[in-house]
Amino acid sequence: MEDPLPPRFQPGMIVVSTKGHDRGRLYLLLALKGDKRLLLADGRARGYVDAKLKNTKHVRFLGQAIDDQELDRILEGQQCESECNTMIRKMIAKWVQSKDTDKE
């Protein structure tokens, strides 16, 4: 029997794809699907409605962008898909910017 999903994965985290044609792309973790699958979106190529389903082995955790309950509240408060995608892009950009300022 395989181990369940590691506790380190939870919605609101930023992950980077390590395998596949999207290698190197940053995603916001929207939800957990089963033991080994993550629902990911970047707000551009993979939006809120057509989020990517990816195996946990094919991503690497980078950091926590937002609390999972806060993520749900923000995304549920949006009126349409384009607003959700905009919020996802902003969350990723804000996280990247915070990491860039940490390096300085």
Would you kindly provide a written description of the structure presented here, covering whatever features stand out?
This protein has 104 residues and is of the alpha+beta class. The protein has one domain (13-99): Roll (SH3 type barrels), CATH 2.30.30. Helix content is 31%, strand content 27%. The chain has helices at 68-76, 81-103, and strands at 13-17, 26-33, 37-41, 52-55, 59-64. Strands 4-3-2-1-5 form a five-stranded antiparallel beta sheet. Strand 2 (26-33) and strand 3 form a beta hairpin. The model has no long low-confidence stretch (mean pLDDT 90).
How is the topology of this model organized?
Elements lengths: L12 E5 L8 E8 L3 E5 L10 E4 L3 E6 L3 H9 L4 H23 L1
Antiparallel strand pairs: 1-2, 1-5, 2-3, 3-4
Q: What's the quick description here?
A:
The chain is of the alpha+beta class. It has helices at residues 68-76, 81-103, and strands spanning 13-17, 26-33, 37-41, 52-55, 59-64. It contains two helices and five strands.
Give me the CATH architecture, please. Roll
How helical, in percent, are the residues? 25-40%
Topology order in helix (H) and strand (E) letters: EEEEEHH
CATH class category name: Mainly Beta
Q: Which word captures the global form? A: globular
Low-confidence stretches: none
Any key phrases for this structure?
31% helix; SH3 type barrels; globular; single chain; alpha+beta; 2 helices; five-stranded antiparallel sheet; 104 residues
